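Changelog entry: the Four helix bundle protein record was regenerated in this release. Current contents:
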Amino acid sequence: MSFKFEKLKVWQKALDLADEIDQLTKTFPKEEIYILNSQIKRAADSISLNIAEGSTGQSNAEFIRFLRYALRSDIEVVGCLHLAKRRKYLQEEHFTKLYASCEEVLVMINGLIKSLK
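Regenerated structure tokens:
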């Protein structure tokens, strides 16, 4: 038996992004553990969690509401990536790769929202 969200490519991509962010935060300095480290990890995890929660057989309008939360979390990750880059915890090449992953998830979430309207 599987849950509806497990079949969604956007959910799978969001999990991949969360894993990438988790690996990134392991390189942050210790003084960021309760600040930027925690913030970016929670935001990244929130993307897939909101997709999952919203897909629970409720109305399309309700699912869209949760997808919009996921979208906001994705954008929050981008903001955190900019902070990490400015603080020199992240090289430009790695930033560009993660930024592109966030863009891909954003496009997929928007596509799913449009398909549900």
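The helical segments are 9-25, 36-54, 60-86, 92-116.
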